Amino acid sequence: MTSDDDKTIRSSEVDVTIATYEARIAELSAQLEKERAAADDYMKRWQYGQAELANVRRRLTQERDDAAKFGNVALIRELVDILDHLYRAEATIPSSLRQLSWITGIVLVRGILEHALQQSGLEAIVVKAGDTFDPQIHQSINELFHQEITVGCVVEEAQRGYRFHGRLLRPSLVTLSRGKAEEESAVHSQMERDLGEQPTDPEGAP
């Protein structure tokens, strides 16, 4: 075997070794990419799990807070009914009797109860004559003619409404305006004229 043949054999062995290493490197690179993809997937799953856990914790905290706030709503409703009775009783007291000590005591008790309810989260809904009717907080119980208040707007409040911790506890009962009486009368008169002017079918017409 000549020296040239020996060099050729060694060169071939080196080429085979390099090819083997290159194949192994390619195999390891592919495996590394696969592991990186798996690691990314695991990280995304972990982040998603953490976000879900945070949402559950937040929801449980909200439910606990709501239970603490609204757990006694039935009692609040009953106390509001008592407050209504005290207001009605106070409204019927003649001015000549308001200086009596027991009358003053009733008014004082009403004020103490109202303050305690406010401290617990009760808020009265403010209603004024002329307010636009809002079905979210108002409930109409009557309508009447009014010379100044626009049709469909509030004329007066029949019963006070309340919110409890920002939520509607009960709507305000209100009377709405039908507008001016003469305007409705004019509308009715026009309708009657329109009906009277309608042509009638000729006798014997099919």
Describe this entry's structure for a reader.
The protein is of the alpha+beta class. The protein folds into three domains: 1-71; 72-120; 124-194, Nucleotide Exchange Factor Grpe, Chain A, domain 2 (Roll). Helices cover 59% and strands 14% of the residues. The chain has four helices and six strands. The chain has helices at 3-70, 73-91, 101-119, 181-196; strands at 122-124, 138-144, 154-159, 162-164, 167-170, 172-177. Strands 1-4-5 form a three-stranded antiparallel β-sheet. A hairpin with a 2-residue loop joins strand 4 and strand 5. The longest helix is centred in the N-terminal third of the chain and has 68 residues, at 3-70. The mean pLDDT is 84.
List the helices and strands and how they pair.
Elements: H1 3-70, H2 73-91, H3 101-119, E1 122-124, E2 138-144, E3 154-159, E4 162-164, E5 167-170, E6 172-177, H4 181-196
Parallel strand pairs: 2-6
Antiparallel strand pairs: 1-4, 3-6, 4-5
The helix content is 55-70%
Count of runs of 4 or more consecutive helical residues: 4
The domain count comes to 3
* N to C succession of SSEs: HHHEEEEEEH
What gross morphology would you assign? elongated
State Rg. Answer: 42 Å
Question: What strand order characterises the main sheet?
Answer: 1-4-5
Structural class: alpha+beta
The count of DSSP E runs of length 2 or more, i.e. the number of strands, is 6
Tell me, rounded to a whole number, the average pLDDT: 84
Strand content: 5-15%
Biggest sheet architecture: 3 strands, antiparallel
Low-confidence stretches: none
Distance from N terminus to C terminus (CA atoms, Å) equals: 129 Å
